[in-house]
Write a structure and sequence with these properties.
The chain has about 350 residues and is of the alpha/beta class. The chain has 2 domains: about 110 residues, Alpha-Beta Complex (Aspartate Aminotransferase, domain 1); about 220 residues, Type I PLP-dependent aspartate aminotransferase-like (Major domain) (Aspartate Aminotransferase, domain 2, 3-Layer(aba) Sandwich), CATH 3.40.640.10. About 40% of the residues lie in helices and about 15% in strands. The protein is built from 14 helices and 12 strands. It has a 7-stranded mixed β-sheet with strand order 2-8-7-6-5-3-4, with helices on both faces. Strands 9-12-11 form a 3-stranded antiparallel β-sheet, covered by helices on one side. Strands 1-10 form a two-stranded parallel ribbon. Helix 9 links the parallel strand 6 and strand 7. The radius of gyration is 20 Å and the shape is globular. Bound molecules: pyridoxal-5'-phosphate. Pyridoxal-5'-phosphate binds next to helix 5.
Length: about 350
């Protein structure tokens, strides 16, 4: 029963379901030593210098954080090579996604995105009483002609995750440029690069390749995945200064907390230490892709820190089978299973367990 006159668009929403924790799977199945490969997290602890920065900042949390994360914005701007007024920092890139929706969507506006894609898109669009307009994937990849064709005068936003979650496929900036040619320049195009650090640099960089000629492009990135700060929440966007200004107006007060800002600055100070771990995850992804191929699975192109296995009709059986043996993955019912790349030992365990479960 609803309490008070809750908005119908909220009543209709399903709550976001995060990946299952290892401890929860252990309790449900009466097992121990479960591993979580369900949320595309980095399996490695932060670098000691990052932990030290968090500890040092902890004594200051009786004060509010810097609401605009000024120092972090300017450090990110220098790192990426844009002006400080082109960067917004938020509570995860999902926080910035919500700000984008708050700033741009009125009830009835349309938002186009391919589907399946990031599960936060429909939630944030529907929250605004706006209408998702989805296009089908072709061989698990985006059909950008279909995206262009779905844009109407009511379209305010286009959302494109590249690499895509959950399928792992990616689009190049050349392909994105051709999409941008086909749609009006008052449609804002979000290029969500949460997994950029795991993808081939030859796909291009939307910040240098698209943004200068297309002020309607917003590029979002995060410290949650490659940089291992999922639990602290730092995301950022690179966009035209006017768009950043609008996002700032709807920024939840102090959404970027003090520990997140300190840790993110420390990450930027220790990129040389962190890069080898990203390289290891990449090598592991390629190894897992090869091993799955040897097991007979036909996978879409893997460009992120996860693999997508098109298990279709066997999704439930394989997902539950894996979980009962302590390997927690993310199922997409009737379609496939998304498995995060973990440590080499975790990946070995996943591969061995999958071989057992799939043989059943
Ligand atoms: C994980 C993910 C995010 C990141 O979210 P944060 O809020 O930055 O942790 C954004 N987009 C996609 C497609 C993701 O998979």
């Amino acid at each position: 029963m609803a309490v008070g006159r809750v908005r119908p668009s909220v009543t209709a929403l399903a709550a976001y379901r995060p990946g299952k924790a290892a401890s929860q799977a252990e309790a449900e199945h009466g097992i121990s030593h479960a591993i979580k490969l369900a949320s595309n997290e980095n399996p490695y602890e932060p670098a000691p210098s990052v932990v030290a920065a968090i500890q040092a900042a902890a004594t200051g949390v009786n004060r509010y954080s810097d609401h605009r994360a000024t120092e972090l914005r300017s450090r990110i701007a220098g790192w990426v090579g844009v002006g400080a007024d082109q960067v917004a920092v938020g509570c995860g890139s999902v926080g910035l996604l919500q700000q984008l929706c708050l700033a741009y969507l009125d009830p009835g506006d349309e938002v186009v995105y391919p589907w399946p894609s990031f599960e936060a898109y429909p939630i944030n669009v529907k929250m605004m009483a706006a209408a998702p307009v989805t296009t089908d994937l072709v061989d698990h990849a985006f059909d950008l002609d279909a995206v262009a064709a779905a844009v109407t005068p009511r379209t305010k936003l286009v959302m494109l995750a590249t690499p895509n979650n959950p399928t792992g496929t990616a689009v190049s900036t050349t392909e994105l440029a051709s999409l941008l040619q086909q749609i009006p320049d008052d449609v804002v195009v979000l290029v969500d690069e949460a997994y950029r650090e795991f993808s081939d640099p030859a796909l291009g960089d939307p910040v240098t390749d698209l943004l200068p000629s297309h002020p309607n492009v917003v590029v979002s990135r995060t410290f949650s995945k490659a940089y291992g700060l999922a639990g602290l929440r730092t995301g950022y966007v690179i966009a035209h200064p006017e768009l950043v200004m609008e996002l700032d107006k709807v920024l939840l007060a102090f959404a970027s907390n003090m520990l997140a800002q300190a840790a993110s600055l420390a990450v930027l100070d220790s990129l040389e230490e962190i890069q080898p771990r990203i390289d290891l995850l990449l090598a592991e992804r390629n190894r897992v892709v090869g091993a799955l191929g040897d097991l007979g699975w036909d996978l879409p192109d893997a460009n992120a820190n996860f693999v997508y296995i098109p298990t279709s009709g066997r999704t439930d059986q394989i997902h539950i089978g894996l979980e009962q043996k302590g390997v927690v993955t993310r199922p997409f019912p009737g379609q496939g299973i998304r498995v995060t790349i973990g440590t080499p030992e975790e990946n070995d365990r996943f591969l061995a367990t999958l071989a057992e479960v799939a043989a059943d």
